[in-house]
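tool_call predict_complex ligand=guanine
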Amino acid sequence: MTAQIISGREIARQIREELKQEIAELKEKHNLIPGLATVLVGEDPASQVYVGQKEKTSHNLGIYSERYDLPADTSEEKLLVLIDKLNKDPKIHGILVQLPLPKHINETRILYALDPKKDVDGFHPVNVGKLMIGEPDYLPCTPHGIQQLLVRSGIKTEGAEVVIVGRSNIVGKPIANILLQKKEGANATVTVCHTRTKDISFHTKRADILIVAAGKPKAITADMVKEGVVVIDVGVNRIGKTESGKAILCGDVDFDAVKEKAKAITPVPGGVGPMTITMLMLNTIRAAKLAAGLA
Ligand code: GUN
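tool_result ok
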């Protein structure tokens, strides 16, 4: 079987074109410019790349953006003061605090401090709860991007056996909730596997759609999947550097071997990654519309 390669780059580009139109209309008809603040604490190189991409994409689409780069030893109190200021700033509709935060900062306390209406990551407990009951304001970006990859590639989720490997608050748990919803592009039967699952292969082999966010390079091998599976690989592992110093990336799936059995598969890079940033832009527009009473 030759697998369809699901290009997140291409699908993200399509969605960004749609968003660009929407932003232009908001400006023209309502004089409304969506605004996003990104907050990065510390110098983690991967986080710096992500935040840089978020800023660049905002700029390209016509979203107003502010970037806050704080030193690694920033106190929790100081970060809370910044969040309070951004919560009150009418130019800012969305606030993104890049995770993970340095160890001395209590991540939960920071997430609770965000105004849920500006929580464009969908990580505040109010937004987690709203998703859980099927009334979300914001879908978390990576899981929403995964759902869009499936829907826009014509992959039917209704009644499908979806197996998720990984139970993080950022990917595993929210994608399980999203695909469980009684809505179009969802209605799946969902299994979540994790580090204490007895026999991961038993579950992955049953999957019609396999979503992997395990954080382990090539954790899923060809013997662990069935013929005709659809594979979404959320992993981004830095496994070395090129001579010019560029990071060499691989996913959590052994792409070359698994693609021989799969019906469709996402590559790394160029799969889920570009979707995450695009869905953040979508949430920022939604935040601006909600604030202006337009949604
Ligand atoms: N770190 C890894 N993924 C994410 C994300 O989607 N949002 C934030 N804020 N931090 C992250």
